[in-house]
Write a structure and sequence with these properties.
The complex is a heterotrimer. By secondary structure, chain A is an alpha/beta fold. Chain A contains 13 helices and 16 strands. In chain A, strands 2, 3, 4, 5, 6, 7, 8 and 14 form an eight-stranded mixed sheet that branches. The N and C termini of chain A lie far apart (57 Å). Helix content of chain B is 11%, strand content 25%. A two-stranded antiparallel ribbon of chain B has the order 1-4. The chains are: A alpha/beta, B alpha+beta, C alpha/beta.
């Protein structure tokens, strides 16, 4: 039996493995990583699959080397990724900033564990979500997604590569240990049903091409790869449109603003959410990742008890779905934000609405159960306000 | 110590190359490597300076024809500022 | 006095970003010399400049990427080698060279240096060793000689430096050589040799750093250090590797030459038989 590149069909598959297969289905042909629980299965799967499909899977000596190797492969034209957990995510931050500055498409998967520090390697957490937004030094736009099932882990891996290529950014795929380690049905489509958005490529004369000149409204410059004859210079220093280092405040302002606006301006196309029962809802529960599974149950039970509650699942964490939240806030009395950390995403909700936002929090180590979410819903709907967290 | 050295048979046909020195004035930073390391002592420090104030090399009047296009100055200049080309006789 | 012919262009201007000349390195700095040797090796290699890629890290040597007119990547401190690995593995047709300094390669980059050598990745690494962290003002680094002065060793460096040749040989590199910026012909030859040689090649080139290192160590001008090289270097490639430490104190020889030249197989990604 031959292994085909894309394992079209119905599978009962571990989340990490689904991520690996999603990468292969998306055309990823380079993985540079370092083993770290609970993401190791991604590396293990790819170490077996990449040699079968002409890709490269290399276990680097540390996470800094992993991210650097991913960027090198991307610069040469390959779809490239790495996978890690909290401690490795922290180590990769400098080179995530390099990816943002050099505008090199790449994918970083963080299967979150209990944190901080070594924390709980084999147990879930969702406490890296603010780090995903602000982890590397400086201002730069961030796109991050949070899957809640192995199926979605597959789908979002494919989508993340498309976003990375299209916008020339490092996309952060923020799973958690529950999603990474659970085994569930995953349907892998036919090859021609898998969406593929390529990189924007340069047109016109090579000599006149300016690698960091963004002439389009989306603020994304075309990308030329090493060895194609464009003779480009890429640097982590602040640079002008030719890519040359330029130590001026004006250039810095223009460049950094564009890196931020590149995401802000395209937010509508990047934000993904799922909504349930928002019609007539007086309270909206917000959750993401594995916590959303508990939240969905809590909302269902609450509705069975007659409570007017709806559910907003954040599929994208960044850019934050602020417009949707603000629109919801017109008709809603209160929000409940459930997350497996001691209060991170709630700050984003709070700053966009005037209504009370009740947080349901747990530092991690066990999936946030639906009972505390249900209690919070009841508290908010019965009392009409709640607020101390 | 007496040195036994044989004279090459084709000595009369042997041509020692001659070189001409070219200088990109504004790139020179006056490091003097070319001047000090030229095996033929062709160069000396000029009293004049370029725009940045560096004293660039000039050719010594008595060594005008001494350059043998060994290209050492070319190779040892960190600034891509000096090179020689062979003069065809 | 006779004026040399004054011109505006250098024969190598197509290989460098001539619009950015003069470069930022100090008068007498050796990095420009090593860069010119690299450029000359590119010409001699016969490999189209479009296939050459240079990757550098942070530091004065790291600025080489910005001056070479090939595809070039100026990456984060110490991470040039893994970036270069990604490039080479994703596109094996590229001729990938890492050009960096002693601090970037052997301090923060040390782990990547030894692992890439261990794997025998098919890249060439040129290390301009000027015995300090020059860009940041002349701090001591992993190759600063014992007793040498620097801004973070005002009483003399209390540490013994790496013997990079021995380190790389032990790590598994196929080709390791050491020269200085006065051995320009040998540097060009070795870079060219390394381009064509499969496996990990490491070429250490000792270079003057008059402002960062030289000024506090009685080597005020670049020429002073060049003359020191000329006086103290001994070409003895069969020197045992563990005796190749560098000591700049008087009467200590500095050994140069091609010290390691092996034919171990270079790293190749695995190609598996199809299996379910």
């Amino acid at each position: 039996m031959t292994a085909s590149e894309i394992l079209t069909g119905r599978h009962f598959m571990n989340g990490d493995h689904a991520c690996a297969e999603g990468a292969i289905a998306a055309g990823c042909r380079f993985f540079g990583g370092y083993p770290i629980t609970p993401s190791t299965e991604i590396a293990e799967r790819l170490s077996r699959r990449m040699p079968q499909i002409g890709g490269v899977c290399i276990q680097m000596e540390d996470e800094m080397g992993s991210m650097a190797s991913v960027l090198g492969a991307s610069a040469a034209g390959a779809r490239a990724m790495t996978a890690t957990s909290g401690p490795g995510f922290s180590l990769m931050m400098e080179n995530i900033g390099l990816a943002a500055m050099m505008e090199l498409p790449s994918l970083v998967v963080n299967v979150q564990r209990g944190s901080p520090s070594t924390g709980l390697p084999t147990l879930p957490g969702q406490a890296d979500v603010m780090q995903a937004r602000w982890g590397s030094h400086g201002d730069y736009g961030v796109v991050a997604y949070a899957p809640w099932s192995p199926q979605e882990f597959f789908d979002l891996t494919v989508h993340s590569f498309n976003v990375a290529d299209r916008y020339r950014i490092p996309v952060l795929l923020m799973a958690d240990e529950v999603v990474g380690h659970m085994v569930e049905r995953v349907e892998i489509p036919e090859a021609d049903e898998i969406p593929y958005w390529g990189r924007k490529r340069p047109k016109g004369s090579k000599k006149d091409f300016k690698p960091f000149e963004a002439l389009d409204a989306d603020l994304v410059p075309p990308l030329a790869h090493a060895g194609e004859g464009y003779r480009l210079h890429f640097t982590g220093l602040t640079h002008d449109e030719r890519g040359y280092p330029d130590m001026s405040a004006e250039t810095h302002q223009a460049l950094v603003t564009r890196l931020v606006e590149k995401i802000n301006r395209n937010a509508k196309d990047l934000i993904r959410t799922e909504t349930y029962h928002l019609e007539g809802a007086r309270v909206v529960v917000i959750a993401f990742g594995s916590t959303a599974r508990s939240a969905r149950r809590a909302v269902r039970v609450a509705r069975e008890r007659g409570l007017p509650v709806g559910f907003l699942r954040l599929v994208s964490l960044w850019p934050f779905a602020e417009q949707l939240i603000r629109d919801l806030a017109k008709d809603v009395d209160a929000f409940v934000m459930a997350e497996m950390n001691l209060g991170q995403m709630i700050r984003e909700v709070e700053r966009h609405v005037e209504q009370p936002v009740l947080g349901v929090n747990h530092a991690g180590g066990a999936m946030l159960a639906s009972e505390p979410i249900l209690e919070a819903i009841e508290k908010v709907t019965k009392n009409g306000s709640t607020l101390s967290r | 110590m007496k040195v036994f050295a044989r004279t090459p048979i084709n000595l009369s046909e042997l041509k020692i190359p001659r070189g001409r020195v070219y200088l990109i004035l504004e790139r020179c930073k006056g490091c003097n490597l070319c001047i000090e390391l030229c095996p033929q002592q062709v160069l000396q420090v000029s009293e004049m300076t370029n725009e940045k104030g560096y004293h660039y090399p000039e050719i010594r009047s008595d060594r005008e024809d001494a350059c043998v296009h060994c290209e050492f100055c070319t190779m040892v200049c960190p600034e891509f500022a000096i090179y020689t080309l062979e003069v065809e006789e | 006095m006779v004026q040399p012919f004054l011109v505006e262009e250098h024969p190598f201007d197509s290989l460098i970003r001539a619009d950015r000349m003069p470069h930022i390195w100090c008068p007498g700095c050796g990095i420009g010399i090593v860069m010119r040797c690299y450029a000359q090796a590119i010409i001699k290699s016969g490999i189209d400049l479009e296939k050459h890629v240079v990757v550098s890290g942070i530091g004065c040597s790291g600025r080489v990427a910005g001056y070479m007119n090939s595809d070039s990547y100026h990456t984060t401190h110490g991470r040039a080698i893994p970036f270069a690995m990604g490039l080479k593995l994703a596109n094996p047709e590229l001729c990938v060279t890492v050009f960096s300094g002693d601090g970037d390669l052997a301090a923060i980059g040390g782990n990547h240096l030894i692992h890439a050598a261990r794997r025998n990745i098919d890249i060439t690494v040129i290390c301009a060793n000027n015995f300090n962290f020059g860009m940041t003002g002349g701090q001591m680094g992993p190759t600063t000689p014992y007793g040498a002065m620097s801004t973070t060793s005002p009483y003399g460096c209390p540490e013994h430096p790496f013997n990079l040749v021995n380190l790389l040989a032990a790590a598994g590199a196929n080709f390791v050589s050491r020269w200085t910026t006065i051995h320009v012909r040998q540097v060009i030859d070795d870079v060219l040799y390394a381009f064509n040689k499969s496996g990990f090649s490491f070429i250490e080139v000792l270079a003057p750093c008059p402002i960062g290192f030289g000024k506090s160590n009685d080597l005020e001008q670049g020429i002073d250090e060049m003359l020191l090289y000329r006086e103290r270097c001994v070409h003895k490639p069969d020197t045992p590797l563990d005796q190749l430490g560098i000591d700049l104190r008087e009467d200590q020889p500095i050994y140069v030459g091609r010290f390691v030249d092996r034919e171990a197989p270079a790293y190749q990604p695995i190609i598996a038989e199809d299996e379910a």
